[in-house]
Every structure is written in C-alpha cells, then in structure tokens.
Amino acid sequence: MLKLTPSALSQIFWQQTREKNIHLRARFTDQLLPLLGSRLSNNNLLREGVGSIGYADALSLFLISYLAAPRNIAEVGTYIGNSSTAIAYGACISGNLIHLVTCDKKICAMNPIEGLNIPEGNYIESMQCSSTKMFEKLASVNICLDMLFVDGILLDEDMPLLSKLLKPQTVIVLDDCVNDEKGHLNLNLFKRSGIVKPPISLNPLPLNATKSFQLSELNDTHFYLEPFEKGTFTQWEIEDSPRTGLLIPKSSVKFSNQ
Description:
This protein has helices at 6-20, 25-40, 55-68, 82-93, 131-140, 158-165, 182-193; strands at residues 3-4, 72-76, 99-103, 123-127, 147-150, 171-174, 213-214, 222-225, 245-249. Helices cover 34% and strands 14% of the residues. The chain has a single domain (3-18, 54-252), classed as Vaccinia Virus protein VP39 (Rossmann fold). The strands form 2 sheets. The chain has a 7-stranded mixed beta sheet with strand order 4-3-2-5-6-9-8, sandwiched between helices. The protein has a two-stranded antiparallel ribbon with strand order 1-7. β5, α6 and β6 (171-174) form a beta-alpha-beta unit. The chain has 7 helices and 9 strands; from the N terminus they run βαααβαββαβαβαβββ. It is an alpha/beta fold. Residues 200-219 have low confidence and may be disordered.
C-alpha cells in the first residue's frame, strides 16, 4: 500500500505549482512585490506591534488564488491590504471577475488594493468589523465562497455561519500555520466543527513526526498542505519561509499516468 506523509504531499504540490507556473514569476517579482514593499515601508499605514504577511506568504496567496480562480472570496484580517492585493491579483489574472470582501476590527487600508490595476467589473469591499459581522452579512445574501483566507483567530460563533458559506470545493487558506500559532488553532476549529473534514492523520504534526496516511483513508472533503519549504521559490526572489497552510478540496487532487 502506498503511503505518503503530509510533508511529502505538500512538497509535491508546491514543486508542481512552481514548475507549471513559471510564466507568472515576472508578474509577481516586477509588479506585485514593489507594491507590497512600498506599504511595508509606509509608517502611516503600519500599527505598532502588528505585523503584515511576508513576501513568501504573499507568493502563496498569489499562486493559490491563480490556481483556484475563485469568484467569491472572503478575508479575515485586512490590515494594510497586502494579503488582499496578492489574492485579488492572482484571482484576476486567472480570468475571472471577483467579489472580495475583507474585514478587520482596526482596518488600516479602506482601499486594500490601492495601486493595483485590475479590470473593471471586479468588486472589492472592506469592512471595519469582526469576522462574525462579515460572515453574517455574507450569509444574509446567500453567498457561497470559493476561497476563504483567515489571518486572525476565528470565533466559535463564526462556525455556524461558515457552514452556510463554505462548500466542499472551497479553498481555505490559513495564516500562521507554524508551531502552535493561530493557524493551527483555526485548523483544529474547522476540524471540530465538522465543516471541512481533513483526514485525521493530516492534522498538524509535531516536528520530526513520521505519521503517514494511506490512499484508502482519503475519503474526506479537504487535504491539509503545509507551508512550502524554504528555498522552494529562490528563483522567484523569495528566500524567507512562509507561514501559510492550505485546506484544498479533495476533488482538486488528481492521480495521473503522466
């Protein structure tokens, strides 16, 4: 019986993503990185004691948004808009018109994609509120999300709302999926709620763990993918380590003879 570790599955995903999307490198390095960098150096935007996503995480968001080509997107944790911009850019160049709704209790960028040129017809909405308030609004108009990005700590009261907003095909992106930080707390909240069902053996594992799963166990809705390893995207001018984990739909993983 073939066995794969979660780390091996993640490495395969990120290596294939790098190799098949090399045509996007110039868009990321020449167009997106300078815009993100300009915000990180703008003291008028930054709040003391609060950090923005790094360039490696921006690349993760950019690539997964391009691959998933989502139309309806929600984000928890706008801050200075770098994650919103990476998501919007990747999703827009995939060819779809998008509706991106992003929230933050102390938003620093009411226009989170300022400086990014995207086609007309795309709709970006920022809300200064809690995640619960945003999810309530989305649920009230029966939106079904194609992608959710969480850079914050979800609340128990969010989960009944998310059960209405998410579907088996929704891509869920979680920031800070390292050690015991908030990404893993959110991942475990999703697991306990039963909204998405990652295989038990794909839960976050301790460092140096050797636990594996069998293909016969992959009968759930999503697979958990770890952040890509340092050095994976050196040619993209990315040297730092990301913190972004993914819950990708089982239906997006295909086995091929070629």
